[in-house]
Amino acid sequence: xxxxxxxxxxxxxxxxxxxxxxxKKRYTQYKLDTVREKMKRDRSYPKVLIQIPMYxxxxxxxxxxxxxxxxxxxxxxxxxxxxxxxTNKTIMENVKAECRIWQxxxxxxxxxxxxxxxxxxxxxxxxxxxxxxxxxxxxxVIFDADFQPEKDFLEKTIPYLIDNKELGMVQARWKFVNADxxxxxxxxxxxxxYHFSVEQEVGSSTCQFFGFNGTAGVWRIQAIRxxxxxxxxxxxxxxxxxxxxxxxxxxxxFVGDVSVKNELPSTFKAYRFQQHRWSCGPANLxxxxxxxxxxxxxxxxxxxxxxxxxxxxxxxxxxxxxTFFFYCVVIPSCVLVPEVYLPKALAIYIPAIITLLNTGGTxxxxxxxxxxxxFENVMSLHRTKAAIIGLLEASRxxxxxxxxxxxxxxxxxxxxxxxxxxxxxxxxxxxEFVMGLFMLHCAVYNMLYGNDHMFVYLFLQSGAFFTIxxxxxxxxxxxxx
Length: 481
Known about the structure:
Layout: H1 2-22, H2 33-42, E1 48-54, H3 61-69, E2 78-84, H4 89-104, E3 109-113, H5 120-129, E4 139-142, H6 153-162, E5 167-176, H7 183-205, E6 217-220, H8 221-226, H9 237-247, E7 251-262, H10 268-295, H11 301-336, H12 344-358, H13 369-392, E8 414-415, H14 424-427, H15 430-449, H16 454-469, E9 475-476
Parallel strand pairs: 1-2, 1-4, 2-3, 5-7
Antiparallel strand pairs: 4-6, 5-6, 8-9
Helix pairs in contact: 1-7, 1-11, 1-12, 3-4, 9-10, 10-11, 10-13, 11-13, 11-15, 13-16, 15-16
């Protein structure tokens, strides 16, 4: 599995280097100036729907609604739809009041609240598209509650769809407003930058497949309906829709030059729940869609192989399993059983190359490489567990917990190193604590009886597990605030 992951990473690196060296990023091949000039000259702007799904978003709702309502697009050709599934009445009234403010400014903004949360985000988006006034719209733009697009977002994305009828979706990249908030957000930025600058770019440039990120994207409404609409059968409704649309023959384009500001989860609890959803959902979708992909006659055999092997199996399952089972279980266990020989190429060189390739998307954070490795190894525990839950459809397979955003509370948040002893029992992560003990035992044994220096890595990794086990990572907002 390490070799499988190594080949996949090497392949993407070769492709992205070629794309950058040749200047053949796919989105640069489209001629959009003519389309933009025609729109402005003839005032032939298509009608666009903007959907903003939210749930009890007390801190960021004003940011997202305000950003959507100030987009530079003719107001008579724009509908902003706030899909508020909030259960907190105070928050509901605040969101309604914000919508009324923009209505008084002349915006066509609709406040929609459901009596239930059936289907969570997918259910809200599906019901939003069923409104009668949506029939006038050709395209739908989706922004999560913490996303703040630039004013020219529509002008930079809609033209791709106007003149290219085979395109079903345009995806923009994410820009993180709080990447420098703490070490944990810096490490998240490293992983996500690789996802956008390499994985998404390679999938788009090779005209294979890349997933919709659930937000900061523009869909042709016809493509959504042709694919069967939004479904809530997994916790990655965005990836589900993208796969089904791709199997129906629709193409996607990733526009790396267009970025949308958003907030990274800066509390470990929020990040852990997010990673569970992002790891469990793809594994569950892989189980549900493998046969459908294999039997699809609309796409080539190479695209089927890319979807099943490259996109799902290697990136969504093997990547997690290798990181946890090999680096956190097998290698430490070999210290206790010296008769087992691990070749240096497998234990050191291949992992080192994979790591360097993964972190190439964020050069400014290369000095944090060691911290990133240790943190990713710890998080692989949760991702591996979530992937297994998804494959087996065990408990928590459909768990949906909205990622907490600090928004206006960021000034109150501070790095978490020590907390009240009365909260200690609530914040100890038992799995990380057990893994920390295991790593510490292996490190001490290797230091006393080993003939190599593996204990250096084991001590550092055990320290990382203990650090997270006791909640000494991320930020927190004091309760009395």
